[in-house]
Here is the input.
Amino acid sequence: MTEIIDFLSNIASKIMEFILVAFFWLADVLANLLIKIGLVEKESDAIVIGIIIMFIIFVIIMGATIGSKYHSRGPYDGGGDD
Here is the structure.
């Protein structure tokens, strides 16, 4: 039984490692892009703005996927009788 738990733990660890590395890679790419375009002069500002941009994109994607699940189509949003 512990072998299965260790196996699943290793899989979860690799998935989290991939997500974390992808997050930092994307933050670096966005920071370099903002500096190259000329929108930001300092690298620290570019990293913060890149993280904020990623957070906004994450919120929009989560809102689109979760929000459509709980959309009620009631009388106040055009789906029911008045």
